Amino acid sequence: ALPQWRQSSYAGDAIITAVGLYEGLWMSCAAQSTGQLQCRLHDSLLALDAHVQTSRALMVVSLLLGFFGLIISVVGMKCTRVGEDDPITKGRVAVAGGILFILSGLCTLAAVSLYAARVTHEFFNPSTPVNARYEFGSALFVGWAAAGLAGLGGSLLCCSCPAGERHQPQRYRPSQPSTAREYV
């Protein structure tokens, strides 16, 4: 939701500028030197570049996966009384939530990295005017951190499944009481 996916670059001759430009997936903003911020939502979905449309779609999918992962993980926690009382079933539900978190993190990582690759490509393109170049915005770094934390959290949930789920428990027969004949 942050508009700072890319920000105007101050490289080149125009070091002192009165306006800073920010663009994001949902809006573009102009920050005046007086502290005033004016934002405008993107008018048309079809008029956007393909990398912005793809990043939007990946971020929406990531949010949905994260939401469902959160719900499923809460159901799979040992401290909740929702669902089954069987610890193995609860462990499997927690692992499913962890997998959804990992997928959410991968979608976020793909969206942010795709957008960053496009910003880098446009910055180093010699045909792009120096005044129209953009650099990474703070939202990209927040996105990379969020992807890492979602992947880490999902991995921890996947590793928290009970030991009985990973390996089938071995069943031992109780030993028979010995009789007096065996000692003779």
Quickly list its features.
transmembrane; five-stranded antiparallel β-sheet; transmembrane helix; 5 strands; 4 helices; alpha+beta; 184 residues; Claudin; Butyryl-CoA Dehydrogenase, subunit A, domain 3; 12% strand
Percentage of residues in helical conformation = 40-55%
CATH architecture of one domain: Up-down Bundle
Radius of gyration, CA atoms, in whole angstroms: 27 Å
What's the shape?
A: elongated
CATH topology of one domain: Butyryl-CoA Dehydrogenase, subunit A, domain 3
Mean pLDDT: 81
SS strand fraction: 5-15%
> Please, how many helices?
4
Uncertain ranges: none
Largest sheet: 5 strands, antiparallel
Euclidean distance between termini CA atoms: 84 Å
How many E-type strands? 5
Summarize this entry quickly:
This protein is of the alpha+beta class and 184 residues long.
Write the layout of secondary structure elements.
Elements: E1 6-8, E2 19-23, E3 27-32, E4 37-41, H1 50-76, H2 87-124, E5 134-136, H3 138-159, H4 163-166
Helix pairs in contact: 1-2, 2-3
